[in-house]
Amino acid sequence: MRHRKHNHQLGVKSAHRVSLVANLSCSLIEHGRIKTTLAKARALRPAIEKIITLAKKAHQSDDAARKVHYRRVAIARLRNKKAVSKLFDELVDQFLARNGGYTRIYKLALPRLGDAADMALIEFVEEAPKKKSKKKKAASQSDTKKKAKSVENTPNKKDSGKEDTVSEEQKIDTLDDSSTSDTKDTGSSVKEQDTVPADVLPSDDDSSEKEQSAENK
Hints:
CATH 3.90.1030.10, about 5% strand, mainly alpha, elongated, single chain, about 220 residues
């Protein structure tokens, strides 16, 4: 008999339902939490928990062939290799200490606009630890080296200010020296102009002779 076999039909055919659950599972693995209708969340919970069980079996087994087998079964159900690799390689560590119950569902108070369907949030019970990629570390190290080089190459503001003040003082000193030399030159020229040789000045004898010649005339 088929009693209690009519669960989670979602009003669509089997092929549509299988693709829908696979896409919801991939989104949940990628983001860790998704918002959907309550009926879809309840249909998604058993499917995703069975795939998490496959990931745990693959992680705990020592046989490489069994690991590959479990991974292939998960790929056949999810139809996404990236999501399967993320679940089997990164997210499986947070589920090793739990025996089922890997997801939780929160029913939201506000229904969906349009058809008033009940909405819900489905998420993993424990958050996965974030791992820093090696590429980001290498990029950060290169950025720090570039910053250090730029700091070494840039002159210090205090030193540059001192150099500027020194240069200004040197300019002032040179201007003072030039002004003093100019004043010295002008003073010497004035003195030279003031001092007339004695030969050029008229003597008293010459003036007396000129007066006598004028009287005789």
